């Protein structure tokens, strides 16, 4: 069975973005960007892979990306219909128009059911790009968390996942620190 990995950046107080979707307050240094860009090349948008000279590099960790409408729309607003052209892209939305790009699948039904189908297929891992509502809906399907915890307190914003109070346990697998003060934490779902 394929794993679903939620790879996300958060503030110290648990926000993935500000109240108006701001993410420019996260400190990113060249060394940090280079390290994660190399290690997690598959989760880089296509334009970022191209900028690193890896536009045509084969995927090695993930072959599918999941996102909600709010995560997908910023690309559409600048005319990019497929921000992850190197991955199969599944967008969950009840309001988006039918896609114009053949690599984009819009799912208007239950995300859990569709994700279970995708997890049962052959292939590499599945990357959950966001956002909070989709992560909340899929919380019981998430097998791994890779959390980039930035040394900043946002005060308000969009949480990492939004769902009714029901604590979920994950075990720490790895913790690494970087020159920008960011700690990258890898967790796996607790299986007890």
The CATH C-level name is Alpha Beta
Kindly state the mean pLDDT as a whole number? 94
What is the H-and-E element order?
Answer: EEHHEHEEHEHEEEE
Largest sheet: 8 strands, mixed
Number of helices: 5
Strand order of the largest sheet: 5-4-3-6-1-7-10-9
Q: Residue share in helices? A: 10-25%
Protein name: Dihydrofolate reductase family protein
InterPro entries: DHFR-like_dom_sf, RibDG_C, Riboflavin_Biosynth_HTPR
Organism: Microbacterium aurugineum
Domain Bacterial bifunctional deaminase-reductase C-terminal: 5-183
Tell me about this structure.
The protein has 192 residues and is of the alpha/beta class. The chain has a single domain (4-183), classed as Dihydrofolate Reductase, subunit A (3-Layer(aba) Sandwich). 21% of the residues lie in helices and 29% in strands. It has helices at 30-39, 46-51, 69-77, 111-120, 132-137; strands spanning 4-10, 15-17, 62-68, 88-92, 104-107, 125-130, 144-149, 158-159, 170-177, 183-189. The strands form two sheets. The protein has an eight-stranded mixed beta sheet with strand order 5-4-3-6-1-7-10-9. A two-stranded antiparallel ribbon has the order 2-8. α3 (69-77) links the parallel β3 and β4. The longest helix has 10 residues, at 30-39. The mean pLDDT is 94.
């Amino acid at each position: 069975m394929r794993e679903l990995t939620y790879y996300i950046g958060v503030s110290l107080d648990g926000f993935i973005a500000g109240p108006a979707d701001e993410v420019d307050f996260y400190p990113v240094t060249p060394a940090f960007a280079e390290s994660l860009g190399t290690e997690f090349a598959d989760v880089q948008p296509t334009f970022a892979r191209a900028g690193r000279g890896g536009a045509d590099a084969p995927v090695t960790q993930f072959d599918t990306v999941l996102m909600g409408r709010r995560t997908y729309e910023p690309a559409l607003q600048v005319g990019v219909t497929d921000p992850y052209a190197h991955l199969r892209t599944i967008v969950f939305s009840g309001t988006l128009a039918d896609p114009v790009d053949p690599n984009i699948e819009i799912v208007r039904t239950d995300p859990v059911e569709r994700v279970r189908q995708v997890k049962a297929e052959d292939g590499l891992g599945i990357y959950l790009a966001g956002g909070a509502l989709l992560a909340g809906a899929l919380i019981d399907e998430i097998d791994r968390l890779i959390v980039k915890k930035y040394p900043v307190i946002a005060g308000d914003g969009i949480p990492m996942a939004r769902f009714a109070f029901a604590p979920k346990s994950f075990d720490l697998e790895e913790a690494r620190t970087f020159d920008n003060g960011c700690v990258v934490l890898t967790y796996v779902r607790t299986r007890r």
